[in-house]
TrEMBL record:
Signal peptide start and end residues: none
Residue ranges constituting the Zinc finger CGNR domain according to the UniProt record: 162-203
Record protein name field: Zinc finger CGNR domain-containing protein
Pfam families the UniProt entry points to: ABATE, zf-CGNR
Alphabetical list of InterPro entries matching this protein: ABATE, ABATE_dom_sf, Znf_CGNR
Length: 206
């Protein structure tokens, strides 16, 4: 599956209570963005996943939500999402450290995938065979795109390019896809400018 979303790095969205909630898509990777749903340090810690609806909302923003129409069938989605996020953080941490980690918990999510071939043939076009994901009543299957992205990241990514923002007060992870390979910040508009201003002030005082 692809993860190709044209979004600004830092988006503000209104929740149902009318408050702003930060939806962060700065990781340039679906799995890293999922880990980044919990961010910040100390009193500034934030968690975007607080109930089943918030998980569904995030999946929709990431454009990987299922077509589940019955909200009652999404009960338990938060519990599964928090579990998968912990799994993702642990596996990425261990992979980054060059250590082994047990993949069995992730494989349980990956096993929820079910695909079958579909022949698509529109008038005026040649027939083509594509994969079609089968619907599942298991709420954990809603998180399958995240699990697949995580598996691909762990197996295929150059982990020298998987980094944490260099701002001490920021915990966000990202995959450096820049040509020069010198990305340092989760977002230049946020941490990048803040750290540059701090460095300028320090030089001025000196």
């Amino acid at each position: 599956m692809g993860y190709n979303i044209d979004v600004v790095n830092w988006r503000l969205n209104m929740d149902s209570s009318g408050h702003n909630s930060s939806a962060l898509f700065v990781g340039d990777n679906l799995a890293l963005d999922f880990i980044n749903t919990a961010y910040g340090v100390g009193d500034n810690k934030q968690d975007l996943l607080t109930d089943d609806a918030s998980v569904t909302k995030w999946l929709q923003q990431a454009q990987v939500a299922s077509r589940r129409s019955d909200q009652a069938k999404s009960r338990g989605l938060l519990k599964a999402a928090l579990e998968l996020r912990d799994i993702a953080r642990e596996l990425v941490t261990m992979r980054h450290a060059g250590k082994w980690a047990d993949p069995s918990a992730l494989n349980r999510y990956l096993s929820l995938g079910s695909y079958h071939l579909v022949l698509r043939w529109s008038k005026g076009d040649e027939p083509a065979v594509t994969n079609q994901e089968a619907a599942s009543d298991n709420v954990e299957a809603d998180l399958l795109p995240v699990a697949e992205a995580l598996a691909q990241l762990l197996a295929e990514a150059n982990f020298e390019k998987v980094r944490k923002c260099e701002c001490d007060e920021c915990t966000l992870l990202f995959y450096d896809r820049t040509k020069a390979g010198r990305r340092r910040w989760c977002s230049m508009a946020m941490c990048g400018n803040r750290m540059k201003v701090a460095a300028y002030r320090a030089r001025s005082k000196a």
